[in-house]
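Ticket #4471: complex job returned nothing on first submit. Input attached below:
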Amino acid sequence: MKVLIIGAAGMIGRKLAERIGADGGIGERAVDELVLADVVEPQAPAGRVGNVKTLAVDISVPGAAKPLVAERPDIIYHLAAIVSGEAEADFAKGYRINLDGTRDLFEAIRAEHEASGYTPRLVFASSIAVFGAPFPDRIPDDFALTPLTSYGTQKAICELLLADYTRRGIFDGLGLRLPTICIRPGKPNKAASGFFSNILREPMAGQEAVLPVGEDVRHYFASPRAAIGFFLHAAALDTANIGPRRNLSLPGLSATVGNEIAALGRIVGERAVKLIRREPDETIMRIVSGWAPDIEARRARELGFQAETSFDEIIRAHLEDELGGTAAV
Amino acid sequence: MKVLIIGAAGMIGRKLAERIGADGGIGERAVDELVLADVVEPQAPAGRVGNVKTLAVDISVPGAAKPLVAERPDIIYHLAAIVSGEAEADFAKGYRINLDGTRDLFEAIRAEHEASGYTPRLVFASSIAVFGAPFPDRIPDDFALTPLTSYGTQKAICELLLADYTRRGIFDGLGLRLPTICIRPGKPNKAASGFFSNILREPMAGQEAVLPVGEDVRHYFASPRAAIGFFLHAAALDTANIGPRRNLSLPGLSATVGNEIAALGRIVGERAVKLIRREPDETIMRIVSGWAPDIEARRARELGFQAETSFDEIIRAHLEDELGGTAAV
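Support reply: We reran it on our side without changes. The output follows.
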């Protein structure tokens, strides 16, 4: 089986490629060719996949997807996007990359489909940013898409395209609305959501972290490990009986900042908790107040998607996957 | 005030132009210039608007909207689209006209906005085709967009764009999800929804009409007169406190085919009812079974949009507006 990952240099893309490399396949099917593309050339993972290609491709250039699709991968992961803050800061760039880049990929598949009957599985990384306040405490699967950012708008539009191309039989698509990923590895960044990860990751590395909101702030999370699990599950899923609604709110953990901190104390210790410095930030509080506190994700759970059920699990996953099992504090 | 109608040669566009011409304005504001554009040059209406321009413009040609926007109309009605059946039959054409044509218009407004601060009111004709079964008996305002046609997908995508451009302050947009228009004037057509109008209009003209479904089929309607009222109301509405959800399910009448026929009997007489010939059609039955039986439209009603509350009213509107008050039977 041949697998293409577009956006393979990002955090999720890299981990997904590493996992496929380590497993040598997805589910019960062996992967014999793995093509990794991103705007900067991705790194090839170690592992058991024979043929790995790494390509620098800018999908916002019209026609750029065509040669990727011409190799007729069985599974296409489309993870490439610019992030929420950048799409908000640069209107045209956000639409060019996040919408036109996706549509160009879908059109390349349509051309190949019409030429040869090619119908790949396509797994698209969407986001809970397709939802915008006000919403119920627990957002049901059939809730309206009312994004409050250009990023969320672009993801919602791509979801609609994905459903229509799938209904037409052009590809077999699944859109995955990812919860906020926590704990993100790497350095603190300026994303408004960064603190959810920072207040765990930095103390576990012996560093101070800033908490800009109150402990009662509630949001919806899954670990990077769970996210990779979603993408693997989506590639292997039997879609025969799923029907035309192909964009799924994924399972996650609804938890407060207080829940995060309590779990940090339990799993790592009070020395870690003491490294969290309270520094209230009205701007971040306002932004975060518009985010989803909980999502029902009933269909995705019924379809076998799984996420963590406590922050203890999320912290243990980070310890095991990023820190070799031991915190530095 | 300057008003532009794109799609002015269609049934709604023509009636809207005639009404603005007759009234000489919209709400309390006089219209001194009316620009009518369509892929075929629209007819100028009679009336009290001084300056009327009629233009043949194909909005699916990139850049075609630019000269229309350069005249800086205060109100832009965007009604141009190919219909559901054609968008389903020709995938590329549907996206080119219904999506790219709309986006090109929105981008032309953005260029003018960025150059000069221009921020028109934009009223977009959307459709209840943005909803797809299964849905509740009465679709609430915050129900998911799950279209089951390419036409509905294109309308839903344009709704998302409209909301984002409005949130950005580029224009002041309102998307109107029209109920099925009944009684459509003119000849019977091959649209699956055609019979809802045919079984009233044809008998009122002394002609036989075919009913392909059972009398218990329920759907959601508004008259052409109500539709024109929606568009006039949307142009005059104070949007200051509407918030970011700019696409409205509009009020309509939820009624069965049996309700239609009973009203025809009451208003026109049993001679008219006898002209309806039952000829069951499995294909049409199946298509219609996926259509919305009722829509809540709470926000639009609160914002002052109004539709008929009985088929008696809908039939009387047709008698007055199309037949000079008297049926031919």
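Chain B has a mean pLDDT of 96. Closing as resolved unless it happens again.
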